[in-house]
Specification:
The protein has 124 residues and is mainly alpha-helical. The protein has one domain. The protein contains four helices and no strands. Helix 1 runs antiparallel to helix 2, helix 1 packs across helix 3 and helix 3 packs antiparallel against helix 4. It is elongated. Keywords: Membrane, Transmembrane, Transmembrane helix.
Length: 124
């Protein structure tokens, strides 16, 4: 089924919810942690987002859709990460290295989504 104008906010919200669920499973049930868990979860959600978009729309996202979708996804996750950072500050102020690591964990999600939603390349 092809939709002329996909509702990108719904895709972004679905991906954010998937991040929460997959993180809970990976970190809680499977006891994964650290950067490896973040990369696995971010890659799984980004791949799932790209697959669902292609399945529902019958195509890859256009360049503008890709920018908006990744932007909404990054914004939503950014709000969640800001809340997490605020809770971290209440407990104990993280140092510069902690903030850098925190930013790297956050950045993995929109970056991998950007790559997963890349347009098809023309064959030479």
């Amino acid at each position: 089924m092809t939709h002329a104008s996909p509702r990108l906010g719904r895709y972004a919200l679905g991906a954010i919810l998937a991040c929460i669920v997959v993180n809970l499973l990976a970190r809680g049930l499977f006891k994964l942690g650290g950067p490896l868990a973040t990369l696995l979860v971010a890659a799984a959600v980004a791949g799932g987002l790209a697959l669902v978009f292609r399945w529902r729309c019958g195509r890859r996202p256009f360049a503008v859709e890709r920018r908006v979708l990744v932007g909404l996804y990054a914004l939503g996750l950014g709000l969640l990460y800001a809340g997490l950072l605020a809770m971290m500050h209440l407990k104990e102020e993280p140092g510069s290295a902690g903030l850098l690591l925190f930013a790297a964990h956050y950045t993995a999600y929109p970056l991998l989504a950007w790559f997963a939603l890349a347009p098809e390349r023309d064959a030479p």
